[in-house]
């Protein structure tokens, strides 16, 4: 939203809606919005995304919920393109229990200019949104942005090589524990010749 100086919104998604969209218990690694226009600027400063579980099935009052939020996208400048699905990759994956309703909170600065990106939305049958602009009056709405969530499925990587040749640090002072998960290891040859390093993914 670049039509105003700032914007904040909380959107509620029921567990049933999340499951119907294909989500299962596990890590959520990103969300995406579907836009059709660029707006006055492609950038928004202090863009922040937080997620919290909730027992609410709808917003009752035009007020933000204070819940146990996890910041999944820390404040920074976010840049979108002119159209299509805009994916926001989380800095920290959110672990969903598969049962809880979720509140997605997004806040950012704007440039108080001529227009915002036009974002596609769907009218829900309940009050699914609380929003405010410029830190003023809060409002309820049934019009919720169309959002796609993407799950991240953890991958276990285990390494095999000549004993004593794999390390967890680039200075080769911390040996890699055999048969344990590590996304990255460092190799230091212990002998002359070619050594095979094998990564097993599960």
Mean pLDDT, to the nearest integer, reads: 90
What is the overall silhouette? elongated
Reading the helices and strands in chain order gives: EHEEEEEEEEEEEEEE
Structural class: mainly beta
Strand numbers in spatial order across the main sheet: 4-3-6-1-8-9
Question: Radius of gyration from the CA trace?
Answer: 22 Å
Low-confidence parts: none
- Measured as a percent range, the helix fraction is under 10%
Total number of beta strands:
15
Strand share of the residues?
over 45%
Quick take:
The protein is mainly β and 202 residues long. 3% of the residues lie in helices and 47% in strands.
Layout of SSEs?
Blueprint lengths: L5 E8 L1 H6 L5 E10 L7 E12 L15 E10 L4 E13 L4 E9 L11 E3 L5 E5 L5 E3 L1 E3 L1 E6 L4 E4 L5 E2 L18 E2 L10 E4 L1
Antiparallel strand pairs: 1-6, 1-8, 2-5, 2-11, 3-4, 3-6, 7-10, 8-9, 12-15, 13-14
């Amino acid at each position: 939203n670049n039509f105003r100086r700032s914007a904040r919104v909380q959107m509620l998604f029921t567990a049933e809606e999340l499951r119907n969209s294909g989500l299962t218990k596990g890590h959520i690694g990103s969300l995406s919005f579907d836009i059709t226009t660029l707006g006055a600027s492609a950038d928004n400063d202090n863009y922040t995304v937080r997620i919290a579980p909730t027992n609410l099935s709808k917003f009752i009052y035009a007020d933000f919920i204070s819940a146990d939020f996890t910041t999944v996208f820390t404040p920074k400048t976010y840049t979108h393109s002119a159209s299509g699905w805009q994916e926001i990759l989380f800095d920290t994956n959110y672990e969903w229990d598969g049962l809880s309703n979720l509140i997605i909170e997004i806040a950012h600065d704007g440039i108080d200019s001529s227009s915002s990106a036009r974002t596609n939305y769907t009218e829900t049958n309940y009050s699914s949104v609380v929003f405010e602009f410029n830190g003023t009056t809060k409002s309820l709405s049934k019009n919720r942005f169309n959002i796609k969530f993407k799950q991240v499925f953890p991958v276990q990587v285990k390494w095999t090589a000549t004993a004593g040749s794999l390390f967890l640090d680039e200075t080769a002072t911390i040996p890699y524990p055999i048969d344990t998960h590590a996304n990255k290891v460092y190799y230091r040859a212990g002998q002359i010749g070619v050594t095979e390093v094998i990564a097993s993914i599960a």
